[in-house]
Amino acid sequence: MIMATRIIISLGGSIIIPKTGFDPVFLKAFRAFILAEIKKGRTFLFIVGGGATCRMYQQALRTCTSIMDDDLDWMGIAATKINAEFVRLLFKDSAYKEVVANPTKKIRTTKPIIVASGYMPGNSSDFGAVTFAKTVGATDVINLSNIAYAYDKDPAIYNDARKIKKISWKDFRKIVGNTWEPGLNLPFDPVASREAEKLGLRVSILCGTDLTEVKKAISGRTFRGTRIF
């Protein structure tokens, strides 16, 4: 059950701007949902990913030039900053005054929302969420993306891929491996998974556009998605 003062959410870039473009109907509903939760006393820390925007720029660089992984990661981090600034402005009156980058820095604020971006090469915004959880003493991270479950293999490739409802870190890490690559598209990145296991964090993976299920997850109730522990 999620008991942290500030709910840590790794917010996939695909939720903010999917490949098809911004969805104002969803964004308005998401904004209203979060503001309603704030009125109940909840506070949030969003770590925003780069999503399709990040991967588009990275693929263009790979196609046009020979480029190092660290540079591709920096490109991805720049994409997370754009997405994070959008989220901050979406909640402007309720959000901390600027996008935070360093996940080891404790932010003192009375604002109910803090928005963060990517920080350093070598991992995704999932790792930032795990590090923020460590910094604020949270025991849970909620990962919101465009999928409802993690699978034992890529369902876009394998018809027999099985969705996972509950799984240990040991078994989950066998699925995602140990190696990070820029733009890697996994339910929870390998570096973040290793650190989360070390910290004993619980991670919930669910579809971020299904606000009914998101509400269940942040309330500590059973939801449609994957629990890693």
Automatic annotation (TrEMBL):
Transmembrane segments: none annotated. This is UMP kinase. The lineage of its organism: Bacteria, Candidatus Magasanikiibacteriota. It comes from the Bacteria. Residues 6-206 form the Aspartate/glutamate/uridylate kinase domain. Coiled coil: none annotated. GO terms for molecular function: kinase activity. Keywords: Kinase, Transferase. The keyword Disulfide bond does not apply. The keyword Cell cycle does not apply.
